Amino acid sequence: MSTTAPHRPATRSVGQAVTQSVGQRILRSRVLAALTTPHGVDRYLEMVNPMWAAEEVRARVVSVVRENPRSDGTAAVATITLQPTSTWRGHRAGQYVQVGLDLPGSAKRMTRCFTVSSAASVPGEQITLTVRAHDEGQVSKHLVAAEPGLVLHLSQAQGEFTLDESPATPTNNHLLFITGGSGITPAMSMVRTLLRDGYDGGAGRKVTFLHYARSPEDQIFADELAEIAAADNDVTVLLRHGDHVFSEFELRRLVPAYRTTDTWACGPAGLMELVAAAYDESPKLRTEFFKAPRTTPGNAEGDVSFTRSGSVLAEAANSGATLLEQAEALGLKPEFGCRMGICFSCTTRKTEGTVRNVLSGTTSSLPDEDIQICVSAPEGGCAVEL
Ligand code: FES
After folding, report:
1. Which CATH number fits domain 174-289: 2.40.50.140, 3.40.50.10490, 3.40.50.80, 3.40.630.30?
2. Ligand 1 nearest atom to the CA of residue 342, by list position
3. Which of 73, 316, 334, 362 is in the most buried spot, having the most CB atoms within 10 Å?
4. What lines the ligand 1 site, CB under 6 Å?
5. Is the whole model's pTM more than 0.85, yes or no?
6. Residue 2 contacts by C-beta under 8 Å, 6 or more apart in sequence?
């Protein structure tokens, strides 16, 4: 089953917009903020109606479409349509949001990042997230099984892996998308945006969409991709399944000038490494991982200690893994979101020692600095305040 069609902007009358903007100004006023300290206006609004907010963004699940459902109706992937609160500022195609969920039995709100799969949105519009349930992913599993009416906490849209080309900023460039697995979602948002906004052939405009999936059964958005491929729109959709892996030879045959073609690539680390090698540092390639890239372990010397308010929570010999992995191996449960250095949910204070960013390779020995523990591995002894 394919995903829902790209949504259209919700329409609001001028009167509604003015009333809403006056209401928002009152809700954000300093007087009201002072009156509602220390909880803030949003805590009180949420108690009255979870879809009322002055600053925070929340969203109600409007519908859930399970992709490629099994015979019992469950699925590994679902596309969830969300109606955000009026505080949502819209998104650019390719951006992601952090989704916060208060799961039953969990004292802490859990936050994870998901790419918006619908076309670029403006304030007031519905958006879709296409989520794959991971075995260890409590949030993703909860979302894939969600029912309409569930209210989520959202961040504003984030990320710079975005599409700038549109009919409004005319370009005759050939655009190329190379994706694998769940990495298809930002590219779908971009292609949906281009098609919705009229970037369909003419003036030499062309789009090539090359996607790799494990099997036809794992192919999400299959019906919609088939429709796009069949339409007269100068979008070429090329789906590769099974053992058919990315090769520079094939890419050169498909798009001879690929190194000078604006390209967006997103997928698992193995695919991304092959694509990066084929582009040989060409500035035309923009990349985003949907899983953390493979990293080399840090220098496994010294001890690592995790503290809170001056007391040691746990301490062990440094294994060389990231601080998040080492904390979890000790039974601690630090906050995290993306686990790949994007969302900053895991930011904590390092009080002692040197850490290496496993993505960039840079090291830092500054005392009392805030670090992302999901991508920081200690180089020798280290202390972190959780
Ligand atoms: S968990 Fe997202 S930056 Fe660390």
Report:
1. 3.40.50.80
2. 3
3. 334
4. 336-339, 341-346, 372, 374
5. no
6. 67, 221, 222, 223, 224, 225
